Amino acid sequence: MTYQVSTSSQQDFVMIQITDTHLLEYPHLEFVGMQPEQSFHAVIDLMRQQHPQIDLIVHTGDLAQTPTPVTYNRYIQHMQSLEIPFFHTPGNHDDVAHFPFHEVDQTQLTVIELGKWVIILLNSAQPQRIDGRITESQLKQLHTLLSKLHDRYVILACHHHPFAMQSAWIDQHKLKNASDLLETVKPFSNIKAIVCGHVHQDAIHQWQGIEFLSTPSTCIQFKPKSEKFALDEEHPGYRYICLKANGELETQVYRLKTSERMSSSEVLGYD
Questions:
Q1: CB 3.0–4.6 Å: which of 6, 25, 116, 182 could bond 66 by disulfide?
Q2: DSSP symbols for 37-75
Q3: How far apart are CA 16 and CA 238, in angstroms?
């Protein structure tokens, strides 16, 4: 299904990416001394302070650490209260039985139109697995879509990272068929960026004119280039992306100045 957020082709747009909120069933709950709900709300508050005009928010997965209807409903209610169009795609901690998909048919891609820009959400989550895979059906849909969007600027978004982070423990949980995704997008020069979550850190990679962007979590951060699971001292944050009418994009990560600290690898279950 296609969602039309704006038809204006002459203006720049502000897109915010948030990711890996890992919300628990109730706001007051903690894991290892941290309240993901509090951190998430603080990041949203910072976002609104920094950017008075936001056109779109995209959440790239792991909305929930406790993926129940209660958790998802509370998230939806809070996002609706912002009165900003928002979209999301699942991560490995989400439960497809309760996840608030935008499409009735979960095999269909979500397409968002924003002036000359189109954002396509891919589902890379696999049941009962940490690593990711984009199904052949989605890749075929993507190829068909891209063939029709030659006069538009395109951003793809999914949960799992398609590029190596040079962290052995997280790279084993990356997008397993990243090569299939790259083969699918390779013929299309109008793809400007692929954004992801999952890695809980800020990184920028480039390949054939495409920027691959990962983004900090709204809760804990993973230490870059670490062989074993390790937490970083960086603060929670989000990614600002300015989509320009001429097809260029500008991006910057914003972080909280202070946040709670976590000190255990038990939280997310990677070890």
A1: 25
A2: HHHHHHHHHHHHHH-S---EEEE-S--BSS-SHHHHHHH
A3: 7
Residues 212, 204: contact at Cβ < 8 Å?
yes
- List the one residue out of 122, 124, 93 whose CA is nearest residue 270: 93
pLDDT tens digits along 26-36: 999 987 667 99
Residue 232 has what pLDDT?
A: 85
- Residue 122 one-letter amino acid: L
Residues 6+ apart with CB under 8 A from 257: 235
With a CB cutoff of 8 Å and minimum separation 6, the contacts of 142 are 109, 120, 122, 156, 184, 185
Reported for 78-86, long-range contacts at CB under 8 A and 24+ positions apart, including other chains, are 78/41, 78/44, 82/44, 82/48, 82/57, 84/54, 84/55, 84/56, 84/57, 85/3, 85/5, 85/55, 85/56, 85/57, 85/112, 86/56, 86/57, 86/58, 86/59
CATH assignment, 2-255:
3.60.21.10
Q: CA-CA distance, 155 to 66, in Å (whole number)?
A: 29
What is the distance between the alpha carbons of residues 10 and 239, in angstroms, rounded to a whole number?
Answer: 23
Q: 36-66, pLDDT tens digit by residue? A: 999 999 999 999 999 999 999 999 999 999 9
- φ/ψ of 78, rounded to 5, equals -65, -45
Whether the model pTM is above 0.90: yes
Strand partners, 59: 18, 88
Dihedrals phi, psi of 18, to nearest 5 degrees: -115, 160
The Cα–Cα gap between 145 and 133 comes to: 19
